[in-house]
Design brief:
This protein is mainly beta. Helices cover 0% and strands 51% of the residues. Strand 7 and strand 8 form a beta hairpin.
Length: 126
């Protein structure tokens, strides 16, 4: 069983930056594709970014392209989401997700993922 724990959320002013981290426990996640999703109040949980098992391929939602960067350090068993130029529309609970996959595909749908973290709140003030 893989348990995911997100960290790094908080309150930031518009234009600021945050870096989220996700550290799976229970096993190494070297052969897992990882994703970040977010859910704003009253809205669906939406795809944000994904990275394949070795970091060779990434994918982003159009709304965050050029502002957010997903990366991973398999030696540290951690995946990151660097978020720059934040705006109030980025306010949401951010979730880390994982699925076993040792390929170059990008996975952008909620049902693609097997494991989920409890989420971390990101609030961007105007």
């Amino acid at each position: 069983q893989v348990q995911l724990v997100e960290s790094g959320g908080g309150l930031v002013q518009a234009g600021g930056s945050l870096r989220l981290s996700c550290a799976p426990s229970g096993r190494t996640f070297s052969f897992y594709a990882m994703g970040w999703f977010r859910q704003a109040p009253g809205k669906e949980r939406d795809f944000v970014a994904t990275i394949n098992w070795n970091g060779g391929r990434t994918g982003y939602a159009d709304s965050v392209k050029g502002r957010f960067t997903i990366s991973r350090d398999n030696a540290k068993n951690t995946v990151y989401l660097q978020m720059n130029s934040l705006n109030p529309e980025d306010t949401a609970v951010y979730y880390c997700a994982a699925r076993s996959a040792s390929d170059t595909n990008v996975y952008t749908e909620r049902h693609d993922y097997t494991y989920w973290g409890p989420g971390t709140q990101v609030t961007v003030s105007s």
